[in-house]
Amino acid sequence: MPRLAIIGCGALGTILVNHLAKAGDWTLTGVMARTLQHAQTLANVGHCKATTDLEVLLADQPDVVVEIAGIGAAKAYGAAVLEAGCDLVVVSAGAFADPVWRDMMVSKATTLGRRIHVASGAIGGFDVLRTAALMGVDEVTIASTKSPKSLAGAPGLGDRTLSSTEEEIAFEGSVEDAVRGFPKNVNVAAATALATACDDLVVRVVSQPGLTENTHRITLKAGTMRTDLTFASSFDAANPRSSVSTAWSVLALLKNLRSPLSFF
After folding, report:
1. How far apart are CA 106 and CA 115, in angstroms?
2. At residue 264, does pLDDT exceed 80?
3. Neighbouring C-beta atoms of residue 173, cutoff 10 Å
4. Which residue, 78, 161, 206, 218, has fewest beta-carbon neighbours within 10 Å?
5. How far apart are alpha carbons 32 and 16 in whole angstroms?
6. Cα angle for residues 66, 189, 14 (degrees, 5° grid)
7. Three-state DSSP state, 227
8. Checking DSSP bridges between strand 27-32 and strand 3-7, what pairing results, if any?
């Protein structure tokens, strides 16, 4: 069986480990977190190694490493994972909003013969988005609607306090600015920009009080094709910034890698 390691032991990483059997035959070799206690708790569930050190995680020579720990972790560890001879699954697609890092990672994967898989996360329709990219995208917009609580503390808000009673636009602008201002909220926007190969994608972040789910709407035009994709997913109670479906998208990706019948 192929060997799997996971970077990230938070709410989404926990879902991933708890349901890994649904992704087919994988041997979980280890999990990594910033604190050993968090890693050990999840390792006890997955019956694998717990560590806070990437070298220790990679010592068991996993075939695939999943990053599900945030943009900082993706950028800090991604290159080393490829250099260790592993393929990489990136959940925190916001890392690719940095063109220098993105180009470095693609170049390194090409040179080393490794693959980088971008998880669809809280959205989907990558088949349509990649098709549009080949056709030539004329315009694409993504609007993400979240609760004020899930957006609170984002650097892009500065001293601004979002209304607890009224819907309002928290941000509108480029992917790069969205990732800088809302690094824990806009991975889907970066993934959409990457999949469509669209550098001038417009990102809108909307704050709506009382929400119990996160919603994302992608509107796209490419030549003769128009697409309107809407996704809604309950956020994790332990982490309101993340949609539960994000972890399940990784499980679906892993299952696809193991299946003789592959879906695009």
Report:
1. 9
2. no
3. 14
4. 161
5. 13
6. 30
7. strand
8. parallel
User: Mean pLDDT for the chain?
Assistant: 94
- C-alpha count within 13 angstroms, C-beta hemisphere, residue 190: 27
Q: What is the pLDDT of residues 101-125, one digit of tens each?
A: 999 999 999 999 999 999 998 899 9
Residue 45: Cβ within 10 Å count:
14
Give the model's pLDDT for residue 213: 87
Confidence of residue 184 (pLDDT cuts 50, 70, 90): confident
Q: Tell me the one-letter amino acid at 28.
A: L
> From the CB of residue 86, how many other CB atoms can be counted at a distance below 10 Å?
22
In the numeric block, which tokens belong to residue 28? 């979980």
Point out which residues pair with 205 in neighbouring strands: 144, 171
Structural tokens at position 31: 């999990």
Q: Please say if the pLDDT value at position 211 is more than 70.
A: yes
Query: What is the set of active-site residues?
Result: 216
